[in-house]
Amino acid sequence: MHPLGLVLFAIIALGSWYWWQAQPLEQRRSASWKIFLLLVIIGLLFLAITGRMHWLGALIALTLPFLKKLLPLLLRFFPFLARWWQSQQQQKKQQGQSRRQQRKPNGNSRMSSAEALEVLGLKPGASREEIIRAHRQLIQKLHPDRQGSAWLAARVNDARDRLLHD
């Protein structure tokens, strides 16, 4: 690296450190992100100027942090992007609704109280607290988010509903 580049980098780093120290404690996290972003920008510009990175790549990399703020502007100036974005959101919503409908049990396959007690591993006459505790323990093991079975989790939920609401 060129000695002038090292001196310039040292000056920027030292100035950033003093600026960061001058910030109130509540704002230091935000200041850290600003310093990091500044160093990334300077690094990308250095790579582009020295020919180690194509200028177009540097330009694209520099716009990435601002993409979240640029999205509404892009959607306003390019209406076809707005329509595409809305269609994507609608598809996600429909998929979510269809998943919820798949999880709902059939109205004709209602389990009996004896089956519900067996699913939760309880004895007849269990209290509300025992039902809730047994449900919690089982659902933590069987929940689909923890690589459990959606069908078994639905059965455990049905058993709880049957015992608590009937």
Automatic annotation (TrEMBL):
J domain: residues covered: 115-166
Keywords associated with the record: Chaperone, Membrane, Transmembrane, Transmembrane helix
Pfam families given in the database record: DnaJ
Membrane topology: Single-pass membrane protein
CDD domains reported for this sequence: DnaJ
Region entry Disordered, spans: 92-112
TM annotation in the entry: 6-22, 31-49
Protein localization: Membrane
InterPro entries given in the database record: DnaJ_domain, J_dom_sf
Keyword DNA repair: no
Family statement: Belongs to the TIM14 family.
Protein name: J domain-containing protein
Originating species: Marinobacterium maritimum
